[in-house]
Amino acid sequence: MDSSTIVDMIETLGFPIFMAIACIGGIYFMMRWMMNSLMGKLSGLWEMTVKLIDRIRALDNSIIRMETMIRILHDLPPDWERVGKLDKQDKRDD
After folding, report:
1. pLDDT score for 7
2. 14: left (phi over 0), alpha (psi -120 to 50) or beta
3. Residue 29 falls within a domain, yes or no?
4. Rounded to whole angstroms, how far apart are CA atoms 8 and 3?
5. Residue 38 and residue 44: Cα distance in Å, rounded?
6. With the C-alpha atoms ordered 33, 38, 39, 44, is the resulting torsion angle positive or negative?
7. In this structure, is residue 89 part of a structural domain?
8. Residue 29: its pLDDT value, please?
9. Distance (Å, whole) CA 13 – CA 17
10. What global pTM score does this model have?
11. Residue 33 sits in which domain range?
């Protein structure tokens, strides 16, 4: 936009209406920029959370495996309730 177009708009609409439209446009672009930057950061945090959950599950499986091995070495029965403990959503369907 060149300056003559802006001056024509101010003369047609009036200064208060022009400034209101300009402020609304500025707020819109600022909110759009904020949402784009926040969504990028949130997606990174989401990926990190998923990786941490996977690591925790792997560690839990390793702890259960080692506990079972130690129990077998000491001639103790395995804790089948803990070994077979799965949430309904984690069980396989087949």
Report:
1. 82
2. left
3. yes
4. 9
5. 10
6. positive
7. no
8. 95
9. 6
10. 0.51
11. 3-83
Residues 13-65 pLDDT 10s: 888 888 898 899 999 999 999 998 998 888 889 999 999 999 998 998 888 88
- The secondary structure of the chain in percent helix, strand, coil, rounded to multiples of 5, reads 80, 0, 20
| Count of domains for the chain | 1
Kindly state whether residue 90 falls inside one of the protein's structural domains: no
Is residue 30 one of the residues assigned to a domain?
yes
Count of CB atoms within 10 A of residue 83's CB?
13
Quick count: other Cβ atoms within 10 Å of Cβ 92? 5
Q: Can you tell me which residue has the tokens 């390793």?
A: 62
Q: In whole angstroms, what is the distance from residue 73 CA to residue 22 CA?
A: 77
Q: pLDDT tens, 58-92?
A: 998 888 888 888 888 988 887 766 666 656 665 55
